[in-house]
Design a protein that fits this description.
The longest helix is centred in the N-terminal third of the chain and has 21 residues. It contains seven helices and 16 strands. It is about 30% helix and about 30% strand. It folds into two domains: about 150 residues, Fructose-1,6-Bisphosphatase, subunit A, domain 1 (Fructose-1,6-Bisphosphatase, Chain A, domain 1, 2-Layer Sandwich), CATH 3.30.540; about 120 residues, 3-Layer(aba) Sandwich (D-Maltodextrin-Binding Protein, domain 2), CATH 3.40.190.80. The chain is α+β, with helices and mostly antiparallel strands and about 290 residues long. The strands form three sheets. The chain has an eight-stranded mixed sheet, sandwiched between helices.
Length: about 290
């Protein structure tokens, strides 16, 4: 059953990849629910994924970063809900950096505990897809078909540091944490697209990606349903961890997949990484 959803997303990926190769990257006059300006290609990618999912009998509903509300199908037996960010990295697409699509597949309800599979597509020099269920499978498209090239697993400790958010707005404890990793020899890798940045961590065996609470964005930037929950699921299945918080950071950081959200467009501070780096984050934020 899940296979038909993955198949639809793979077909959408090929289509969106061809659109990205041809289109311009002009902004429209419209904004999405979070208030972000929309590119024509954001809307086009959204329509491609939305239409390919809604025509499947197994899909009960969808929810997209580019739509105000979730869309439910009436009177059918589908049980799966799919939440997706159709084109993540709008701010870097015009400079031809890699961008992606992110998706989470939920059983009956859009809540972290009901997430049963998730993944992302990378539109880069190669078209790639990663799907996490029991393990994390890595596919590449060779121009004709998708090939599974193996599974992704994180080491206990990595060497990459990918720190998001405006640095002048970081808290002191966050600055100390990030600086301590650099002083130990971690290398900076941050493109501004969470798909290529987190994919790089997964392919290179680990490290830390952070998008913290900042003075200008106390709830972080990245959205729970469309970006954070799917990657939390992937990192756990790859042997790593993902922690974050809803609301006040005074309540501390918790496992992201145990968190409950109040609205579909909610954002939260988040940390993804190997076990060693996540232990350091917990200590730094204690
Ligand atoms: P988008 O959905 O508008 O593209 O924003 C999400 C992106 C993530 O891919 C990335 O990690 C983050 O925004 C980068 O933000 P910043 O430029 O503040 O570092
Ligand atoms: Mg996004």
């Amino acid at each position: 059953m899940l296979y038909s959803i993955i198949d639809a997303l793979q077909r959408s990926a090929v289509y969106i990849d061809s659109v990205l190769k041809k289109c311009n990257f002009d902004y429209l006059d419209s904004t999405n629910s979070t208030g972000d300006s929309q590119l024509g290609v954001d809307v086009e990618a959204n329509n491609i994924i939305k239409e390919s999912l809604l025509e499947l009998d197994v899909v009960k509903g969808i929810c997209s970063e580019e739509e105000d509300e979730a869309i439910y199908k009436e009177g059918l037996n589908g049980v799966y809900l799919v939440a997706f960010d159709p084109l993540d990295g709008s701010s870097i697409v015009s400079s031809n950096l890699s961008v992606g699509s992110i998706f989470g597949i939920y059983n009956k309800e859009f809540s972290a505990k009901n997430l049963i599979a998730s993944g992302y597509i990378v539109y880069g020099p190669r078209l790639e897809m990663v799907v996490a269920q029991d393990s994390v499978n890595h596919y590449i498209y060779n121009g004709e078909e998708w090939r599974n090239i193996g599974s992704l697993m994180l080491s206990n400790k990595g060497r990459i540091n990918s720190p998001g958010g405006t640095q002048k707005n970081w808290s002191t404890k966050h600055k100390i944490l990030i600086e301590s990793l650099f002083l130990e020899g971690y290398r900076l890798r941050y493109s501004g697209g969470m798909v290529p940045d987190l994919h790089n961590l997964l392919c290179k065996g680990g490290g830390l990606f952070s998008y913290p609470s900042t003075s200008d964005a106390p709830n972080g930037k990245l959205r729970a349903l469309f970006e954070v929950f799917p990657f939390a699921f992937i990192f756990e299945k790859a042997g790593g961890e993902a922690i974050g918080s809803i609301g006040s950071l005074n309540e501390g950081l918790s496992r992201i997949l145990d968190l409950n959200i109040d609205s579909i467009h909610q954002s939260l501070p988040c940390f993804f990484g190997s076990n060693d780096e996540i232990s350091r984050v917990k200590l730094a934020y204690k």
